[in-house]
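ZP: hey, is the zinc ion complex queued? I don't see it on the tracker
AM: it wasn't, my bad. submitting now with these inputs:
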Amino acid sequence: MRRFRLLLRWIPLIALVSLGCGREPARVDNPGAAKLRVVTSFLPMQAHTRAITGDLAIVEQLLSGDTGPHDFQLTPSDVRRVADADLLIVNGAGLEAWLDDLIASVGRPGLQVVDASADLRLRKNPPALGGTDAGEPGGNPHTWLDPVLCQQQVRTILDALRQADPGNEAAYEANSNAYLERLRDLDAEFRAVLDPLPAKNLVTFHDAFPYLAARYGLHYVGCVAEFPEKDPSPAQLAALLDAIRDANAHVLFAESGYAPELLKRIADQTGAKVSELDTLEIGQGDASAYLDRMRANLAALQAAFARPRPQGP
Ligand SMILES: [Zn+2]
């Protein structure tokens, strides 16, 4: 919230800029232009925002296709899309490392940037297995993968939307209340499914699930890569193999399309199977995308952690 409050100081300036740059005539020409224009960074932010606004605002997702937020490269057309927006909604927590460049390129001092993680307490990145460094500086950015923390993100997005578009405040609030209830149901499902399961050892492809692991009592053994595009060093790989054997982890969670050969090699050397867990970093967000894809993750975790019943006599 700190960043958002700071940015709100620019509101009088936004009003002046809006009056001066001819936004009003555009609304006369095209009634659709009267709607609030929002750009979100990637799938979870888009899904939450769409769930709150419905059709009352124009909500566009900056990252689409097969690019994730860790390896996104800004293009001039991205800058133009944000230049036309009233609000830019990001996960924050350092995930969108390109954000400062984007804001500088847009060059509009009044652009409101909503950092959805601003009110969250971040977890530190664990030191890389087998490495000498103490982990990436700052907190782990994957806050959205915790169905409880994401409820605060939704409330932060709601606050920004109703301040930017007070005419639709009541609808935004009603929509967000309904959405928050669905997120609470999702959290209850995760607890109901995962609580009874034993030995929930989590080995993931990249360091995306510390919040989910902490929330549901999963034992975080380690990850293969700090970022999707960063291969482990030989020492890190050796340490990971040891950690997997020590924890007797029998499933590795891969991400679609990333390093399948490396994962197969690790699986072959440890006897673990490969399953898939979705970081929600790639793909297009509609209003149910977050809920749908997190439920698919829950199903994957359930299948991986459910051990075959011992044979009876
Ligand atoms: Zn990530």
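AM: back. The chain has two domains: 2-125+142-188, 197-305.
ZP: great, adding it to the tracker
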